[in-house]
């Protein structure tokens, strides 16, 4: 039996997971990334920028689509040409955008302008009065969430009202209807009014989530509540509590440490020459969810995620650089591994 | 065995409830009430006002003190003469005010100015940038909450940041340390940014509370989430869920409807000539908690609450008009009842 | 000829001043004063409060009405019982309240709660989201201002938007229609976003005003602009510039120093036993304007103002303690002076 | 004698204009323009953007520098790579940036992302919490303004605090020191809290300005004050008042209508094939100021402005497309005109 035992899961309300039309709804920001045209050049030096869709949950949706996973999106963009671009792009790659609102009250679609280099390029982020944070609880449809197997939450969606309340409401609807919740911590301190407020909402959110993914710096958000997060075991002690059944601690070059109710394991990364430092986490999350949805073992799901991360950072773009299944197969072959197959029975955690 | 089985309750962290030094910590606003000197006169007509301490959780703390219950307070007042008055008053009646913050950044202590009449006197409330809503998660001490048997939350404390986060944090600490949470809905729509936001936080709060008290209008706050609250049974279906073990629907002149895991019962009121429409709910809550703390049966606890409510509204003031045990005894005797005694064994629910 | 030569003044637009139906329109806050019932008692000790209408320009309007001056008001109160009280009171004493708006978006009528003692009683002021600061430029009628001889501005009305813009617009309309502008500095640093912003608007406002009244601390508001206000002469050098033709520096127990284009003079006070420290300035301004309107000499106008100030502070209330003409006559007689008579010809300045 | 008679102007404070080291200080926003790489393509279609410095007063500073005018700048950019780019660029073209502040409290440098086409390309503007609007009165140096002959104000700098107060203060310093003020209306309704507030500040600003430049839509901002702006003569009746001595009504394809105290004249445009609709006004203002500074006649100054506007819109960029003197000469020759020479004596207005 697989970790989440999709076919057998009987939800409180709504139809069984296996019969739901959407695999994953990603909730949070979708914005525009502008990548410097020239490498290793400062903002003063570059001549211009390439244009892509970005934002962690949008990147994950793109990663899922490349793997033919049925993905939906809940978020908000501005009522202007850049908002339309984001919406057009998501539609063009087959993301269901019925949950993507357009807001016309002065908000602006999130914009990240970045230099290009492998280590610490400067990124200037335009998120003052960001459209995605204007997502309102009124915009959240219980029926839409009930149509999905998984709800992927970007923690940044909790950083300000009314997106905060919209996100909490979506999570409540998910719990009511048996939709699994995967929380990508995505903690950016500058977005929050205080570290203490961040701790309160991350604590609430992790207690509503089935899967929690983050890195050590992100998990430390709870320290203001007196929770020790100084090592993996301490993190797991707090974060792997009901209803959370899967905790993934991302450790950069060291790979990841995975905890589940019955045990834990560590996995390394596939070393590649990176073109940029972003994209790895979103690629990882997309392939991990693919693995979970396809009854791959946890170990195999994590390997797939690591391969996707490696492929993404070795390319110059982000949402557009998510690998297809064929590319993953090819990559794994070149590393003397093969694309994993579904497990059967109780062999999951290992 | 009594409802909450104090002596036997084994908490996750901290000492057993029976050994805790504080019985009830009330969390929320404490402010100033100004009552018109003359009855049945408009604001234009009255010559002046009498001064009292008010605010629902402060009134409940006052009610508890009259019954010799060890009460503490978590809240905030302004750094001025009216803030000091509130703090001085709570100290003078024996409330532990270690959790009462003083804020000096332009906030003002909540102020309610009211006409005097039994039915619908106008009340003008000054709560723009109210001190109590400035309570910050940094002000919340896990140790202090661990020292109390019960944490009484006024729902209004959830209406705005940072009080919202401070309140959620206090509730999380209470759950972590086995402190019982009693939530008085105290829903005032005008305090909230939207009905949907109110629904989100009330839903979260009721899912963290052991006891929930409110009236039908207040429980209807969840209707924007598609939850039916059209009658008592519907309300109970949603609100009496883990961990909530006691739900009290206050019904004005019709008394109250009480739900607990094993059943439900209704109780009428003691009819009196009212001097004013406020104070009844806070007097009720205070005596109810007294009953719970003293192993009275649920039925007896509710009767005691109703008697206290009747006494309070028949007087001209509010916090200062909370009855003593002797006054409750005398009132019950005059209604051919006697002051209830603790139950033993399993006879609680009835 | 008198200082402002009313009958002869030919305005750019509108009718001659002498034919205008309103003598003075006061612009700014009108609120509620709550005076402690007991003297020399702290807020913790007092039992309650007496209720009055207050706010500097409302007090000046009350002072003018006691002297039978035709007074109007431009301002805003909240849509509640306290707002109605303020409006009812102003109407009851004959103030024209066509320019008094009622606002219902959560603002509150300004409220000052005060201890009672002659020296430095504590005053707690409720002005968060104050109704008067919600006055909007849309509320300002050029026709109404054109119907008045004088527009009295309380400088505090400039402290925040949209009252700031409404006030500047009223001043522009006044200049366009030949309505004389009297500016009472009324500078309260805590109301302003920064001292520099205060300096900018006070500088603009004084350059639009015919008469400027303030004390040395208030005039120092311009120091952040590099303007020296260390002594009366320095103050006059800056503040007595076109179109300002009358500058009154109030100096507390030392009386006042008066500057006009042709010279200056000082006047002492009438010593009395004060009941409270407020009200003197507003009583002074009211009688001064009475003098100007009635062709009294500047010296006599200032004497009248000083007498009114002395009478007011010797009483327990403020707006209701403004003296009538008969009371001023009686007071002056008891000080071996008589009520001044209009001047004729060019004898004004001295 | 020329219009402003620089050499003879005797200022109240500071040195004569002719001896001042700076010709023009431009005050207001300097930001980043991102121009679509492909023409006639929507935001969805374009592949990326070219990067330039933009913002009306920054463009005017660039125009002035191309003509070897000594230009300074007062404004603010964000403390990040895009802010540094703007600052670096202005320095690189020789603009004195001592008055350019860097702000690090979450503001962002103004960003305009635009499609490319001659008629109505969509422009998405990121100005939520814009750095330039964070310019504070504390940042304004009286000495710096006293060192310049002209202060060029972009009206948008008045749209929000604290930039509004900083701008008013700069204008007050300019008047105090005899620095001529040129106001480019630059009215963008969406930046303002209300049309009435815009009217109040534009009215104040025009009454402090020597030169006022705008188009008919911009001048209509005063209509909420009851001022008729339905035709050029009505506009002139209001806007050409002391101390304004030059009013230029820009009329798009119809050219411009110029009013000065002694008369008025109209001038047409140089028809060219436009690449984009922006830049013309800023190019015009730059050359006009060059003309004024160099004793050209008003007619010649306007012709120079029109030529610069024509050259700018025929190019693909904006700040970088401002013409040099040589380019203006060449352009005028190709239109059978020659570069104007200074006038002598009283022949200015015509």
TrEMBL record, chains A, B, C, D:
Tree of life domain: Bacteria
InterPro entries the UniProt entry points to: Myo_inos_IolC, Myo_inos_IolC-like_sf, PfkB_Carbo_kinase, PfkB_dom, Ribokinase-like
UniProt keyword annotations, A-Z: ATP-binding, Kinase, Nucleotide-binding, Transferase
Keyword ATP-binding: yes
Family annotation (SUPFAM superfamilies): Ribokinase-like
GO molecular function, one term: kinase activity
Residues of the Carbohydrate kinase PfkB domain: 23-324
NCBIfam families per the UniProt record, alphabetical: myo_inos_iolC_N
Similarity comment text for this entry: Belongs to the carbohydrate kinase PfkB family.
Protein name (database record): 5-dehydro-2-deoxygluconokinase
Species this chain originates from: Leucothrix pacifica
């Amino acid at each position: 039996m697989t970790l989440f035992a999709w076919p057998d899961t009987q939800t409180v309300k709504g139809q069984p997971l296996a019969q739901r039309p959407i695999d994953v709804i990603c909730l949070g920001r979708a914005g525009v990334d502008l990548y410097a045209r020239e490498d290793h050049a400062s903002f003063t030096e570059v001549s211009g920028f390439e244009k892509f869709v970005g934002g962690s949950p949008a990147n994950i949706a793109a990663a899922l689509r490349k793997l033919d996973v049925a993905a939906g999106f809940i978020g908000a963009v501005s009522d202007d040409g850049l908002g339309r671009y984001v919406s057009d792009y998501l539609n063009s790659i087959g993301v269901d955008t019925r949950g993507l609102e357009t807001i016309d009250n002065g908000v602006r679609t999130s914009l990240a302008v970045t230099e290009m280099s492998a280590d610490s390029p400067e990124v200037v982020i335009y998120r003052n009065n960001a459209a995605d944070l204007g997502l309102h609880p009124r915009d959240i449809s219980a029926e839409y969430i009930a149509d999905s197997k998984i709800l992927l939450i970007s923690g940044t969606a909790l950083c300000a009202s009314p997106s905060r309340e919209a996100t909490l409401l979506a999570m409540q609807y998910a719990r009511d209807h048996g939709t699994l919740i995967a929380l990508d911590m995505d903690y950016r301190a500058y977005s929050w009014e205080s570290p203490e407020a961040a701790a309160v909402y991350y604590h609430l959110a992790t207690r509503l989530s089935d899967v929690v993914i983050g890195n050590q710096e992100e998990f430390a958000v709870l320290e203001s509540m007196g929770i020790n997060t100084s090592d993996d075991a301490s993190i797991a002690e707090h974060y792997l509590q009901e209803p959370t059944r899967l905790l993934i601690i991302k450790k950069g070059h060291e790979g990841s440490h995975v905890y589940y109710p019955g045990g834990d394991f560590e996995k390394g990364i596939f070393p590649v020459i990176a073109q940029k430092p972003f994209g790895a986490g979103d690629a990882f999350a997309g392939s991990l969810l693919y693995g979970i949805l396809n009854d791959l073992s946890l170990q195999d799901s994590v390997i797939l995620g690591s391969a996707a991360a490696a492929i993404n950072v070795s390319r110059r773009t982000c949402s557009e650089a998510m690998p297809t299944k064929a590319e993953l197969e090819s990559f794994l072959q070149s590393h003397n591994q093969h694309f994993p197959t579904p497990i059967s029975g109780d062999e999951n955690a290992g």
